[in-house]
Amino acid sequence: MVSEERTRASHRVFNAGTSIGAMLTPVVVPWINARWGWRGAFLGIGALGFVWLMFWLLIYRKPEEHPRVSRAELDYIRSDPQAAAGKIKWAALLPLRQTWAFVAGKFLTDPIWWFYLFWVPGFLQSRHGLALTRIGAPSW
């Protein structure tokens, strides 16, 4: 159960971060692009990723090394059975239903996502005269 709880918590944190990023991107990136061009947007967002990396490297500690993890918490974390780590051949993944569910999901959703991501902003600009900086609010 411990592993299941940690997995849920990790997924929730990850999904919250990606949702916040998806909400801020249509507003922030066009503004950066309008001020400093696409290179500025590319470098600015990339630099933000490196700032986050530095922050993460400064604060992250293994549970065994973290000063605020109690002995009871550490025992709770370690109570999970350790799964054997090893390499899995790609061919071994093909018969699994989970693999095909993932492939089908990507096959059905990715074209729509990339359509909206790449085609819609250009369409709104060329067809309706909506500047890239004005697309953010409706997208948000």
- The N- to C-terminal Cα distance equals 37 Å
Q: How does the overall form come out from the CA principal axes?
A: extended
Question: Could you tell me the strand content as a percent range?
Answer: under 5%
Overall mean pLDDT stands at 85
Radius of gyration: 21 Å
Into which percent range does the helicity of residues fall?
Answer: over 70%
* SSE-based structural type: mainly alpha
Runs in which pLDDT lies below 50 for 5 or more consecutive residues are: none
Spell the H/E element sequence.
HHHHH
What is the tally of beta strands?
0
Tell me about the largest β-sheet: none
Overall description:
The protein has 140 residues and is mainly alpha-helical. The chain contains five helices and no strands. The chain has helices at residues 2-59, 71-78, 90-93, 97-128, 132-139. α1 (2-59) runs antiparallel to α5. The chain starts with a helix and ends with a helix. The model has no long low-confidence stretch (mean pLDDT 85).
